[in-house]
């Protein structure tokens, strides 16, 4: 059942941040919700969705959490009890009326979960990506929020639901992931105030942080050492990048999940303004690219020129039908133009 969702005309689409009260009121309307997030989900996507799942259950709703991907091992401080992969539910897909998405800038990013939707599915879109397409019938999008978890926090407040310890843990993981443990420039006073409130809920900070950060296996270290030895730079060190080939995973015994976070090391190079990381994906001729930037360099704009997007300082895109060398050359050309126009 492949549904063409692009041709639908949502009847009550709202632009801008969206009216939080109307959004929350509509959330009370339906009986059974499907919850999902972008493919290759990380802490913000998962923490936000799990918190929303709990919220909907407290409102007496039936829920199903479905993703294309397995629950990441590194998020073992969160509960995967409700997590199902598309393939696991293919035989008996849940009957739901509405879809709640968090941290997902456009509908294609949910991957094969899209096959579960039908033309009547009502979509609730919760996000903080500047590139969000407002594809929902109800959109609550706050690009100034550091994480989707911050946006979900607003929804709890609006519904006057005091957070349980588990919900607070979900939201802390969301916030901590997207702020780089409260280091990135998107971290605001509000992020810290929110964190303070979550800590007051009795979350186990040390355990959570160890779970999030002490994630290195020997094979991951071996992978990183290969990648470190191949860091390349251009434009007097202002551009830095690394290419990951499939054989790097095979030879080091590491996994795709182990590659998450590697790009941050490129940002630690003193001169770097824009870093990118090319990953040859498990699917043939598909290259996933992550970008990071410093100062006022905007990688959302760069990624958007390749039909990707994200945030000003962290974005991504996918090349299909290209070799990693071609993708590398095209991106470098684009970045060189960016530097020459300054
Ligand atoms: Mn996010």
Q: Please tally the β strands and state the result.
A: 12
**Average pLDDT taken over every residue:** 93
Small molecules in complex: manganese (II) ion
Radius of gyration: 20 Å
What's the order of the H and E elements? HEHEEHEEEHHHHHEEHHEEHEEH
Helix content: 25-40%
**What is the SS-derived class?**
alpha/beta
Shape: globular
The strand line-up of the biggest sheet is: 3-2-1-4-5-6
Low-confidence stretches: 1-14
Q: Beta-strand percentage?
A: 15-25%
CATH topology of the largest domain: inorganic pyrophosphatase (n-terminal core)
Task: Describe the fold and architecture.
This protein is of the alpha/beta class and 342 residues long. The protein is built from 12 helices and 12 strands. A 6-stranded parallel β-sheet has the order 3-2-1-4-5-6. A 6-stranded mixed β-sheet has the order 7-8-9-10-12-11. Residues 1-14 have low confidence and may be disordered. The site of manganese (II) ion has 6 residues, from loops.
Which tags fit this structure?
single chain, 342 residues, alpha/beta, inorganic pyrophosphatase (n-terminal core), Diaminopimelate Epimerase, Chain A, domain 1, 2 domains, six-stranded parallel beta sheet, six-stranded mixed beta sheet, 12 helices, 12 strands, 35% helix, disordered N terminus, binds manganese (II) ion
